[in-house]
Amino acid sequence: MRHLAIVGSGPAGCYLADQLLRLVPDARIDIVERLPVPFGLVRYGVAPDHQATKAVSRLLDRVLARDEVRFFGNVEVGRDVRLDELREMYDVVVIATGAPRDRRLAIPGETLPGVAGSAAFVGWYNDRPDCRDPGLRDVREAVVIGNGNVAIDVARVLAKTPGELAGSDLSPQVHECLLAQPIETIHIVGRRGAADAKFTRAELAELGRLEAARPVVAEPQALEQAEPAGEAAAIVALLRGFAQDERETRMRIVFHFGATPVAFEGSGRLESVRFARAGGETLVLPAQLAVTCIGYEAVDCCTAAAGAGVFANEDARIDDRLFVAGWAGRGPSGTIPTNRSEAQRIAQRIAVDFADRGRGGGEALAALLASRGVRVIDHAGWRRIDSAEVARAGAGRCRHKFASTEAMIDAAATR
Ligand SMILES: Cc1cc2nc3c(=O)[nH]c(=O)nc-3n(C[C@H](O)[C@H](O)[C@H](O)COP(=O)(O)OP(=O)(O)OC[C@H]3O[C@@H](n4cnc5c(N)ncnc54)[C@H](O)[C@@H]3O)c2cc1C
After folding, report:
1. Would you tell me which of 168, 182, 284, 288 could form a disulfide with 48, CB atoms 3.0–4.6 Å apart?
2. Per-residue pLDDT averaged across 320-330, rounded?
3. Tens digit of pLDDT for each residue in 253-270?
4. Percent of the chain with pLDDT over 90
5. 96 Cβ partners below 8 Å, 6+ apart?
6. How far is the CA of 375 from the centre of ligand 1 (A)?
7. Does the beta carbon of 13 lie inside 6 Å of ligand 1?
8. How far, in Å, from the CA of 69 to the mean position of ligand 1?
9. pTM
């Protein structure tokens, strides 16, 4: 029997297990996950109002349910088991730990209360247990820095009405906190021009259909100069089209392009964000909340170092019998299906080196974790957490997540 361990149960880890079992049907695959619950950013990144996207977790769950796959939830590599121990117990180990750390702007004021990175902010509104309440206070103006879909997610979640959030899994606590903010303006600010924005059409167009917020381009004349081709042309056309929307709404979402953030300002708390523009001009936007959506970096996995924000690899190989998949290896790019196509390629690469070396695999890992008193959550335990979250959802919500690891572990134990 050949034994393989995947560290991380996000899309990259789950798709890789699926693809490997197609190529190596006698493989036994163990997925080790630091949280008691699987699916990584599908659960804790994808916006709570995009349940159609989150539904991919049902497909990923089918992989975890297979007889050849074992889920070791609530087990962190580096805390509960060392990477070298895993490499002793398994023929192959794959790091699929994602890129959980916010890239920083490294400008003054980044640690002021009121300034958050999107990993922390999105984690908070998705109830990720290790993300603290960002302490929103009297937010009238919010500044979202970045020109990708995460920036749009953040703006949309801030702007949606309770009616628009019906059917989401936004928790009552987060929802109440957002509703308590008297938001009037949400600025989305990009360093480059509109033609360089990384928004996708569907996400940008959705901002034009919000009930209480109307998108506006701060300097529409800048759009007139842009004549891009392909996808960028569609994005610029959508931005131009926003000018037709003359509704009176409670909120405005204002796009600014060509503005580089240089400082978060305020005494004791964020009061404004300062940007530099071409020609030495300055833009200062008053703000009580700023969320930076400028990308993510991988972090070390025990003794494996994520040097420049990813694990250095050659065609997914880090070292002898050690591989990497997903955002941990290629950085924060692409969509969930990108991880599926990448998994096909990586599975083929791994299959070449995947020999049976008579190692202990999951039985050895389970024994080691038991000897250390680690409370492992298996697939049945995750399913109990899942059922309990759906059962306590209440009206207008599809799920009410447990926001602490302890509550999840309790739910996993309740039969
Ligand atoms: C805010 C946001 C919104 C997004 N929205 C969309 C969207 O709408 N549509 C779309 O297609 N894509 C979206 N994406 C992109 C998508 O989420 C990623 O492509 C995908 O999740 C990357 O998969 P991954 O498995 O590499 O990483 P992740 O999903 O981050 O999974 C990594 C897993 O590893 C676990 N882990 C980390 N360290 C350890 C350790 N030491 N031991 C054990 N386990 C560990 C983590 O807990 C996590 O479960 C979004 C991304 C973000 C950040």
Report:
1. 168
2. 97
3. 999 999 999 999 999 999
4. 91
5. 6, 7, 8, 9, 10, 12, 13, 16, 324, 325, 326, 328
6. 23
7. yes
8. 20
9. 0.97
